Amino acid sequence: MDMERKIKRAAYLLLVRRHSYPGAREWELEKYLGRNYEEVLKRLGEILIKIGLEIKVVNIPEGDRILKHYLVVPERSVKESIGGSIFRSDEAAVLAIAVSTIISSENMRAPKGEIIELAKTKLPQYRVEKALNRFIRLKYLVEDGDYIKLGPRSFLELDIDMLISQFTSSLKGVEAVSHGGDREES
Known about the structure:
Elements: H1 3-15, E1 24-25, H2 26-33, H3 37-48, E2 54-62, E3 64-72, H4 76-82, H5 89-104, E4 109-111, H6 112-120, H7 125-137, E5 141-144, E6 147-150, H8 152-157, H9 160-185
Antiparallel strand pairs: 1-3, 2-3, 4-6, 5-6
Helix pairs in contact: 1-2, 1-3, 5-6, 5-7, 6-7
C-alpha cells in the first residue's frame, strides 16, 4: 500500500469513533498501517499541524498499560475562541472532586460513595449522581465495581502527572505548616 493511502487510513483510524471513544491503539495501527505505522503517523502529523491539530499519545492503564493515539487541538486559544464549555460549573466541580479524590488515593481509584459524599457537601445529591454518570458515559471516569477510576479521556484531556505533582507538593506544604506550628507552641 502506498504512503498516501496509509496516511488517509491513519486519519480515519484516529478520527472515527469505532469503540466507545475515538483514537487507535498501537496494535490497531500496526494491523491496518503496517509495521512502519510510526512513520505514517509522523507524516500525518506534519499535515495536521498545518490545520492546528496534532496527534497525542496517551498511556492509558487498562489491564496492561496501553498506548493510544488521538487527534487533539493543542492550542488553548483556538478552543477558547470557539467559546463555552461542554460542562456546567457544578458538573466541573464534581469532576474536580472525583479526580482529586482518585489521584490522592494509593491505588488511583476511590470508592464511589466517598466521591458522592464529598461532592454532596456542596451540591444536591441528584446533581452529583447525574454528573458522575455523565462523566462515566463520556469516559472521563470508569466504574470498577464500587470504585471509580480515571477513564481514557481524563488521561487525554487532563495533565494527570502535573495534577499529581501539584497535589503532592501542596500536601507537603500543608504538612510543613502544621509541623511548623506544633514546634512553635512547644
